[in-house]
């Protein structure tokens, strides 16, 4: 009896998927099949998102603030590092809602500035910014990064543009990567297919100076794989006034599990870049 | 390896005269004006040329050579219409075209999906041109450079295509008379005085010797005689804007009437764009009011529009933006950012040229809607100085 029911259910599901597409009905535990963009950062490609960031989906880097790191969580620097990697092979767009982007910092991360479009909507309002991002996605820009600040704009004003952006990204198979402070606004948390929580472990110091930020990354939500994966990474900061220096990829922090979370972290601000200060 | 097609046809002034007076087709016709005017002959029909009339000679002299000739003035408007038709016809067949008064050039480099093989492509080009020139079949030559193609067209006949294969240019030019070289008359006279009567004789000389005798002109003559001139097609480019104006029968305040007039205007402008094989990238609407003030609106189109149906949605949007404060007496619609409307690359790959064009258009639309400073492209400064904020420059993102 149970076998007959199971077979009938499988046939019904198969029929519905044939008629309405594979996305119409699926089992709750099955992750959706999606292509991926390999970032080249092992910590991201292997540990967090299998194969890289999902194509046609929203990836959100959520920054959790901890006392001692002056509000830094590494989410914005990580977003800009990913953007820099993408810009070397494709056209990218960066929606700068807080208006804090330092192109010099982006260049130091190795970005090809000729391939970077920077969108700064009037007054940094999220609604027009998301609408502009959607326009660029529909035009064929394959990689879009969107930096959310701590905007105190009611989510109702940008929920509709966000939904439109999700649809456009899905249709064009675009990598859409957000950076936003935790806790995430409800519409963004719902729309996200992969939410990575970034929390600082502490400053990375060299010769008494801050040279980077150690960050713990944890998959808080995933529609493309299993949530719960975590890793850590060292994000190096460019040295001040080292023109043309390329920092390279963020590196995996080895054996961070063995290192106890620091009770106190260095109270030195990052030396360069408003992005570093903000993120 | 470039391949250039040259098509020779009767002068456009002569074709314009025949279009207006078909009964003159078999008569000797001289274009330039009345013979008593002190003006040169612009063009002459075959019958007039047989009687000794040559372009460039004074009209009075032409009358003495051919007293039976009919003298007509140049109809510049009709010539412009004929030229536009020829350009539109050739643009549908070849990527780069140039139309002169009695010659047209087209770039046949590469291949054409619809016309495999150079002879078929050349024949299709000749057919397209003949269709635009009231059925007047051109004489066509195809070669690797502009001068050789022109010579090939000269030795060809109407409805015929003369192909000069790569590497055979010098052999083809060798028997042609010296007078065909586009060089200074004094240089040609001196060459003739030296006993050189054909292009092959000039080509066989040393370039250094010719340069010693004639300077840079000698080198140019040597290159031409060997078929190494390297001349290409000076491709026709679309005009920058195209506008259409519609005066109304008195001041109109009714929006429905203005909408109907705008629809008619969009149709007229779309027809002009279609005829000229163009598409508009931007569109501007001006509603001229009674007091001489105009309510205007302008927008960048999401995709180039090449006919009335494609223009109409944008015109509707502009009507909503332009808010006239007084009754309207006329409407003016202007198409800008013109680009060739036919023969565009199909958007097969998102990351290809068409994709880049789409991004450029989208950026222009966003800047048009939200302001020029909303979509930017950073550039590192060459001389950054000491301050971190001077390390880069913001530029408005463009193509």
Highlighted features:
heterodimer, A: 279 residues, alpha/beta, Rossmann fold, 9-stranded mixed beta sheet, 30% helix, globular, disordered C terminus, B: 399 residues, alpha+beta, MutS, DNA mismatch repair protein, domain I, DNA polymerase, domain 1, Dna Ligase, domain 1, 5-stranded mixed beta sheet, 5-stranded antiparallel beta sheet, 14 helices
Write down the oligomeric state.
Answer: heterodimer
Largest sheet of chain B: 5 strands, mixed
Integer average pLDDT of chain B? 85
- Can you count the beta strands of chain B? 15
* Radius of gyration of chain B, whole Å: 27 Å
| Uncertain spans of chain B | 343-352
Helix % of chain B is 25-40%
* Reported CATH architecture of the domain at 242-344 in chain B: 2-Layer Sandwich
* Global structural class of chain A: alpha/beta
Distance N to C terminus of chain B: 29 Å
Counted beta strands of chain A: 11
Let me know the CATH homologous superfamily of the domain at 242-344 in chain B: DNA polymerase, Y-family, little finger domain
Name the structural class of chain B: alpha+beta
CATH topology of chain A: Rossmann fold
Largest protein interface, residues of each chain: A-B, 30 and 28 residues
- Main sheet overview of chain A: 9 strands, mixed
Give the overall shape of chain B, derived from the CA principal axes.
globular
For the record, what CATH class of the domain at 242-344 in chain B applies? Alpha Beta
The average pLDDT of chain A is 78
């Amino acid at each position: 009896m149970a076998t007959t029911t199971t077979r009938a259910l499988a046939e019904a599901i198969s029929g519905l998927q044939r008629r309405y597409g594979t996305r119409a009905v699926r089992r709750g535990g099955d992750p959706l099949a999606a292509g991926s963009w390999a970032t080249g950062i092992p910590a991201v490609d292997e540990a967090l998102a299998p194969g890289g960031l999902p194509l046609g989906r929203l990836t959100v880097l959520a920054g959790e603030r901890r006392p001692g790191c002056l509000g830094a969580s590494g989410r914005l620097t990580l977003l800009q590092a990913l953007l820099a990697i993408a810009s070397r092979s494709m056209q990218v767009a960066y929606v700068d809602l807080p208006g804090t982007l330092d192109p010099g910092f982006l260049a130091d991360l190795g970005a090809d500035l000729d391939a970077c479009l920077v969108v700064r909507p009037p007054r940094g309002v999220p609604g027009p910014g998301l609408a502009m991002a959607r326009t660029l996605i529909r035009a064929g820009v394959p990689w879009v990064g969107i930096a959310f600040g701590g905007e105190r704009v009611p989510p109702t004003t940008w929920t509709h543009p966000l939904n439109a952006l999700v649809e456009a990204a899905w249709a064009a198979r675009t990598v859409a990567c957000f950076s936003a402070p935790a806790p995430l606004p409800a519409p963004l948390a719902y729309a996200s297919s992969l939410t990575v929580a970034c929390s600082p472990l502490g400053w990375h110091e060299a010769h008494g100076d801050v040279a980077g930020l150690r960050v713990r990354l944890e998959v808080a939500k995933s529609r493309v794989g299993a949530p719960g994966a975590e890793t850590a990474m060292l994000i190096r900061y460019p040295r001040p006034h080292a023109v043309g220096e390329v920092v390279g990829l963020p590196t995996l922090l080895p054996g961070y599990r063995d290192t106890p979370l620091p009770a106190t972290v260095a109270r030195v601000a990052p030396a360069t870049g408003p992005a570093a200060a903000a993120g | 390896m470039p391949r250039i097609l040259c098509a020779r046809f009767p002068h456009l002034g002569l074709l314009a005269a025949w279009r207006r007076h078909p009964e003159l087709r078999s008569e000797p016709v001289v274009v330039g004006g009345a013979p008593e005017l002190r003006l040169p002959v612009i063009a002459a029909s075959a019958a007039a040329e047989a009687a000794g009339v040559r372009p460039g000679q004074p009209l009075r002299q032409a009358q003495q050579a051919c007293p039976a000739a009919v003298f007509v003035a140049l109809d510049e408007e009709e010539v412009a219409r004929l030229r536009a038709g020829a350009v539109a016809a050739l643009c549908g067949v070849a990527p780069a075209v140039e139309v002169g008064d009695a010659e047209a050039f087209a770039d046949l480099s590469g291949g054409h999906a619809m016309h495999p093989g150079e002879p078929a492509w050349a024949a299709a080009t000749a057919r397209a041109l003949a269709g635009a020139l009231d059925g007047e079949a051109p004489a066509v030559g195809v070669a690797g450079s502009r001068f050789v193609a022109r010579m090939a067209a000269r030795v060809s006949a109407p409805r015929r295509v003369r192909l000069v294969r790569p590497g055979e240019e010098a052999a083809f030019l060798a028997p042609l008379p010296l007078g065909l070289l586009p060089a200074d008359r004094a240089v040609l006279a001196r060459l003739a005085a030296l006993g050189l009567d054909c292009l092959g004789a000039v080509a066989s000389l040393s370039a250094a010797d010719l340069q010693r005798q004639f300077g840079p002109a000698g080198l140019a003559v040597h290159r031409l005689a060997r078929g190494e001139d390297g001349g290409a097609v000076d491709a026709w480019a679309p005009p920058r804007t195209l506008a259409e104006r519609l005066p109304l029968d008195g001041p109109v305040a009714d929006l429905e009437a203005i909408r109907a007039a705008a629809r008619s205007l969009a149709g007229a402008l779309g027809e002009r764009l279609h005829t000229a094989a163009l598409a508009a990238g931007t569109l501007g609407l001006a509603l001229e009011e009674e007091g001489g003030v105009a309510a205007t609106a302008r927008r960048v189109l999401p995709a180039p529009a090449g006919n009335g149906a494609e223009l109409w949605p944008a015109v509707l949007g502009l009507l909503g933006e332009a808010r006239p404060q007084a009754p309207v007496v006329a409407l003016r619609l202007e198409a800008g950012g013109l680009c060739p409307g036919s023969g565009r690359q199909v958007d097969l790959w998102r990351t290809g040229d068409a994709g880049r064009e789409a991004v450029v258009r989208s950026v222009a639309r966003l800047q048009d809607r939200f302001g020029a400073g909303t979509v930017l492209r950073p550039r590192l400064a060459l001389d950054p100085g000491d301050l971190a904020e001077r390390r880069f420059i913001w530029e408005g993102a463009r193509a």
